[in-house]
Design goal:
mainly alpha; single chain; about 75% helix; Four Helix Bundle (Hemerythrin (Met), subunit A); about 160 residues
Length: about 160
């Protein structure tokens, strides 16, 4: 059992060094959480309501969309975690990357969800646009972090 002295806890809670999230960082956390929550809801909807109404191939499209949406929701949360740790210049790039994640989801997941529900297979032509946007976003993130030489960190550099 860990005992914390009351005065220590009080000083910690009232510390001026407490971290406050920026509006943009909060926005990234909210977007990521909503992205994941929506993916979970759609995945459950697919497993229960859609499953009996579509072919196994169509259900696989739905499941792929939900899986990739969850993954890229985690990507948005990763951007939120990185936000206070990179330079102001890189923060601007992180927002562009976030928009690419979201746009990629609209194209990739949206086309797969729509294709599952409508069986209009030509919608599958839109899916690679979303995948390309996601690939671009991940590569841009790697490049941004590689080039960010003005990282905000208190951890010793190795």
């Amino acid at each position: 059992m860990i005992l914390i002295h009351h005065s220590s806890l009080k000083s910690f809670l009232t510390s001026t060094e407490a971290y406050l999230m920026s509006k943009t960082e909060r926005k990234l956390w909210i977007w990521g959480a909503l992205y994941i929550a929506t993916a979970i809801a759609l995945g459950a909807f697919g497993a229960h309501a859609v499953k009996s109404r579509v072919s196994p191939d169509a259900l696989a499209w739905w499941e792929t969309a939900a899986d990739y949406q969850r993954l890229h929701g985690l990507g948005l949360l990763a951007l939120a975690t990185l936000w206070p740790r990179v330079s102001h210049f890189s923060q601007k790039k992180l927002m562009t990357i976030a928009y690419l994640f979201i746009a990629g989801g609209l194209f990739f997941c949206g086309s797969l969800y729509a294709m599952t529900l409508t069986n209009i297979r030509v919608l599958g032509a839109i899916t690679p646009i979303g995948g390309s946007l996601w690939i671009l976003a991940w590569l841009w993130l790697a490049w941004t972090l590689y080039r960010d030489t003005d990282q905000k960190t208190s951890v010793s550099q190795d």
